[in-house]
Recover the amino acids of this structure.
C-alpha cells in the first residue's frame, strides 16, 4: 500500500473542509466502526454453529477483501442529499477530483461515474477502497481523514454511477452517442 | 445522463488536407533540389553507431531525428509494405521509439516497462531476451498522463532506461541481465519517470516527472558503469541546489540575481513548485552543454505562487560534467496556462538574420517556435506556429511574452477560449530536422481551452492542480497539423491538416521522405520538400510514438514505429475514462468525441520495407 502523507501546504488555500491537520492525522485511530467490523469478521464461524471457513488468500479475486468485515459495513449517510453534497466538496478538497475527474468522470484514475467498479461498488467496498487504498496507486486514507468524512465520500461516489453506463457505443450515423465507459 | 456530440462529417470525410506553400517564392524553390533553408546543418557530429543504426532516442545528440539512409525515397515510398510486426503485450500509450544496435532491435514498453531484444539476423525475428523489471504497481496511479515510457539509450554494451516507479536500470545489451538499478525518484511524493535518458561521456542523464503532483523537479547524472549518482540539480530552490555559480551567464537581465529559484516564489512554495524534466534531452559536445526544458509550475492555480516561479517553464543549459547551470531562459515566466517548456531542443547551425549561429530550435507548448543562440540563450526569433492568442508577441529585447491580459487566468474567473490549450501547440511528440531541406518537421495540435482556477491543497502523492481546463478544437475544422517550419525566418512552409492532434513524432530521411503517425492510426510518408502525402498505412492502434529507420542485416532499409494509443491525449481510449462530462480536468470525450470511432487500444511494433 502506498503511504500518503497528509500535509497542509503553508501556501495552500485550503478550502473550508479541505486540508487535514497533520497532527490530527497522525493521532487518528482505526475508526470504531471498522474495528467492530474486523472483530466481527474474525469470530470463528464455527462458534455460531456454522462450518469453519478455510481461506486461500492466494486465490482471492481482485476486489474481494480478505477481511470480510468491510463488505458488511453500511453507510450511515446512504442517500442523504446533504451528506452527498458535503462528500462532493471533500472529493475536490482531497484532490480526488484531479485523479478521478470532475464528478468522477475519470482521468488519471478510473471513472467512478460509470457504475463499473474494479473493486466493487457497494458502500462497504467503496469504503474499503478509500480506507485501504488500492494497489494501482489509490492512496490509503484510513487513519488520515475522519471516518465520517470517508462515509460522506462513499455517499458521493455512490451517487455518481447509477444508470449512467451504456454497454453499446454506436458510431454510425451523424452523431456519436457518448457515455461513461 | 447521455451526452450527444455532433460529428463534423466534413472533417472526417475530408481526412487530411494539404495547405500549400506559404509564398510564391517558396513554391518556386521546392521544385528544385537546393535546400529551402540554405546552409543549415545538424549542430553536432555524427552520432555514435553506424549509418544504419539508431542508438539514442533522437538518433543524435542534436535531436535531429534525421537519417542519411536513402534506399526509401520520395519516388519509391509508394511501394512501402508492412514487413513484420511484434506485439509488446502492453495496451497503453506507446510513446518513444525502438533502438537498433548491432543487428538487434531494443524495445521498451509502457508500464510495466518490459524490455525486449529482437534478433534481426534470424528469420521470424526471435527474441534474444526479455527483461521484466521490478516496478511498483502504485506508479501506474501516480503518473499524470498515462503510464508511458519514451525509450532507452544504448552505450558501451548497455541498454539504459527509466522505470515509471522512479528507478533507472542498466541492462546488458547481449544477455539482458540487469547490471544495476538505482532509485532516483520518490513515488510517495508523486514523482515518476517517463523520459528517455541520454548517455554523455559515460554519464546517464535522467530527469523526473510529476509536474501535476507538486514535485520539485530535478535532473541528474549517473555513472554508466555503476549507476552511482554523480550530480543532481534541482530546478527550484537555492542557487546551490539549482547549481548556479560563477559560470552562470544568462542572456536576459530578468534571469540574473541571487537565489531566484527561492525569491521568485512565495514562502516555501518552491518545494512543491514543479519544474520537472520529463521531456527530451540534447547535448552539444563542443560546448559540453546538456540542454533540457522544465515543466509547468505547481499548482496550475497561479494565485498561490505570485512571481516568475523560476526555473519552471524554462530552457536550461548545463555543464554535462558537473550539472552547473551555464545559461537559462524562462520561456513562460509565471506560467498561467500549464505551458511546460519540456519539448525537444534541436541543435542546428544556420544563418539567422544573415549571421551564422549555433542555434537551438524549440517548439514550445505556448505556441511560439523559438530560435535561440545555444551558446548564450539569446532569443533570435519567436513566431507563433499554431493558432495562438494568449500573447501579442515575444519581446526580443527581454525574451518575455507581451501577454493579452484578457487571457490571463485567475482564481474565481472563467477565462474562455485560450489558444493553444494546455496540451500546447506541440507536446511530447518530437519534431525532426533535415539538413537536405533545412526545414523542421513539426507534429502539432490545434486546440483551445477555457480555464478556471480553484483553491487547492498540497497533499503529498496526490495531484496538485487547482484548475479546470476543458479543451476544444482550435479555429478551422482540424485539430492537428503536421508542418514544415523554416526556423531561420520563423515561418511555416507547408502543412498537412489532420482531424486529430498529431501526437506522434517525426522522422525525416535523406530520401526526401518524412514519416509520422496519427491518433486515428494512419502511418504516413510525405515528400519532405512539398508536404505531398505519398503513402499511408492503417496500423492497429493510434500512433503516439516516433518512427525510426535502420539498415537490417539483409542490407535493406526499414522503417519502424510503435502503434498503441495513449499518453495524455490518448488517455480517453487507453485509460478507463468516461470523459463525458463538461468540466473534467482532462475531458477527452468532449475534446475528441469521435476518436473512439477510428481506433482502440493497442501495443504493436510495425516495421515497413520496400
Amino acid at each position: 500500500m502506498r503511504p500518503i502523507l497528509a500535509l497542509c501546504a503553508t501556501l495552500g488555500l485550503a478550502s473550508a473542509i479541505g486540508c487535514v491537520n497533520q497532527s490530527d492525522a497522525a493521532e487518528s485511530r482505526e475508526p470504531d466502526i471498522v474495528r467492530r467490523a474486523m472483530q466481527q469478521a474474525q469470530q470463528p464461524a464455527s462458534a455460531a454453529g456454522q462450518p469453519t471457513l478455510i481461506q486461500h488468500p492466494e486465490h482471492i479475486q481482485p476486489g474481494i477483501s480478505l477481511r470480510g468485515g468491510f463488505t458488511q459495513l453500511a453507510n450511515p449517510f446512504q442517500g442523504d442529499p446533504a451528506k452527498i453534497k458535503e462528500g462532493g466538496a471533500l472529493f475536490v478538497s482531497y484532490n480526488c477530483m484531479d485523479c478521478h475527474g470532475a464528478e468522477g468522470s475519470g482521468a488519471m484514475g478510473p471513472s467512478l461515474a460509470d457504475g463499473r467498479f474494479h473493486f466493487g461498488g457497494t458502500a462497504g467496498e467503496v469504503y474499503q477502497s478509500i480506507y485501504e487504498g488500492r494497489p494501482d496507486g489509490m492512496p490509503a486514507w484510513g487513519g488520515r481523514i475522519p471516518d465520517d468524512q470517508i462515509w460522506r465520500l462513499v455517499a458521493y461516489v455512490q451517487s455518481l454511477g447509477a444508470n449512467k453506463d451504456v454497454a453499446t457505443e454506436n458510431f454510425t450515423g451523424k452523431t456519436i452517442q457518448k457515455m461513461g465507459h | 445522463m447521455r451526452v450527444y456530440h455532433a460529428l463534423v462529417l466534413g472533417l472526417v470525410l475530408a481526412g487530411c488536407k494539404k495547405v500549400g506553400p506559404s509564398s510564391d517564392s517558396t513554391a518556386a524553390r521546392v521544385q528544385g533540389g537546393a535546400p529551402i533553408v540554405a546552409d543549415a546543418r545538424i549542430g553536432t557530429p555524427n552520432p555514435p553507431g553506424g549509418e544504419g543504426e539508431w542508438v539514442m532516442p533522437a538518433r543524435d545528440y542534436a535531436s535531429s531525428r534525421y537519417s542519411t539512409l536513402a534506399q526509401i525515397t520520395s519516388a519509391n515510398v509508394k511501394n512501402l509494405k508492412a514487413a513484420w510486426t511484434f506485439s509488446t503485450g502492453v495496451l497503453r500509450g506507446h510513446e518513444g521509439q525502438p533502438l537498433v544496435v548491432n543487428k538487434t532491435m531494443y524495445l521498451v514498453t509502457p508500464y510495466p516497462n518490459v524490455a525486449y531484444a529482437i534478433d534481426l539476423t534470424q528469420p521470424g525475428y526471435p527474441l534474444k531476451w526479455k527483461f521484466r523489471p521490478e516496478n511498483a504497481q502504485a506508479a501506474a496511479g501516480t503518473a499524470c498522463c498515462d503510464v508511458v515510457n519514451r525509450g532507452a539509450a544504448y552505450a558501451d554494451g548497455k541498454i539504459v532506461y527509466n522505470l515509471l516507479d522512479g528507478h533507472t536500470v542498466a541492462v546488458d545489451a547481449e544477455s539482458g541481465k540487469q547490471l544495476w538499478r538505482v532509485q532516483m525518484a520518490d513515488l510517495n511524493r508523486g514523482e515518476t519517470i517517463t523520459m528517455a535518458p541520454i548517455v554523455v561521456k559515460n554519464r546517464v542523464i535522467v530527469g523526473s516527472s510529476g509536474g501535476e503532483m507538486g514535485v520539485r523537479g530535478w535532473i541528474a547524472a549517473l555513472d554508466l558503469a555503476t549507476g552511482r549518482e554523480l550530480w543532481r540539480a534541482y530546478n527550484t530552490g537555492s542557487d546551490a541546489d539549482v547549481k548556479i555559480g560563477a559560470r552562470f551567464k544568462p542572456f536576459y537581465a530578468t534571469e540574473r540575481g541571487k537565489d531566484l529559484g527561492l525569491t521568485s516564489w512565495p514562502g516555501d512554495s518552491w518545494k512543491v513548485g514543479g519544474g520537472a524534466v520529463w521531456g527530451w534531452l540534447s547535448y552539444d559536445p563542443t560546448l559540453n552543454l546538456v540542454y533540457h526544458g522544465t515543466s509547468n509550475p505547481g499548482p496550475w492555480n497561479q494565485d498561490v505562487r505570485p512571481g516568475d516561479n523560476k526555473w519552471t517553464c524554462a530552457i536550461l543549459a548545463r555543464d554535462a560534467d558537473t550539472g552547473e547551470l551555464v545559461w537559462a531562459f524562462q520561456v513562460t515566466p509565471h506560467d498561467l496556462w500549464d505551458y511546460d517548456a519540456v519539448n525537444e531542443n534541436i541543435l542546428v547551425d544556420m544563418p539567422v538574420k544573415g549571421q551564422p549561429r549555433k542555434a537551438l530550435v524549440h517548439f514550445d507548448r505556448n505556441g511560439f517556435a523559438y530560435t535561440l543562440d545555444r551558446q548564450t540563450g539569446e532569443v533570435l526569433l519567436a513566431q507563433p506556429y499554431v493558432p495562438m492568442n494568449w500573447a501579442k508577441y515575444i519581446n526580443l529585447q527581454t525574451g518575455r511574452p507581451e501577454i493579452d491580459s484578457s487571457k490571463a487566468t485567475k482564481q474565481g474567473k472563467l477565462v474562455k477560449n485560450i489558444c493553444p490549450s494546455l496540451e500546447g501547440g506541440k507536446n511530447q511528440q518530437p519534431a525532426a530536422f533535415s539538413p537536405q531541406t533545412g526545414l523542421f518537421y513539426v507534429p502539432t495540435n490545434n486546440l483551445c481551452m477555457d480555464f478556471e482556477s480553484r483553491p487547492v491543497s498540497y497533499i503529498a502523492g496526490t495531484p496538485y492542480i487547482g484548475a479546470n481546463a476543458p479543451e476544444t478544437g482550435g479555429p478551422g475544422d482540424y485539430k492537428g497539423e503536421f508542418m514544415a517550419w523554416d526556423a531561420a525566418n520563423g515561418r511555416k512552409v507547408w502543412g498537412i491538416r489532420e482531424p486529430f492532434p498529431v501526437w506522434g513524432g517525426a522522422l525525416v530521411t535523406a530520401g526526401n521522405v518524412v514519416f509520422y503517425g496519427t491518433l486515428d492510426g494512419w502511418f504516413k510518408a510525405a515528400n519532405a520538400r512539398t508536404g505531398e502525402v505519398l503513402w499511408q498505412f492503417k496500423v492497429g492502434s493510434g500512433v503516439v510514438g516516433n518512427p525510426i529507420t535502420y539498415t537490417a542485416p539483409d542490407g535493406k532499409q526499414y522503417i519502424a514505429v510503435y502503434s498503441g494509443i495513449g499518453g495524455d491525449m490518448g488517455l480517453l481510449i487507453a485509460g478507463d475514462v468516461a470523459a463525458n462530462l463538461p468540466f473534467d480536468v482532462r475531458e477527452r470525450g468532449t475534446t475528441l468525441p469521435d476518436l473512439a470511432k477510428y481506433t482502440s487500444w493497442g501495443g504493436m511494433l510495425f516495421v515497413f520495407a520496400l
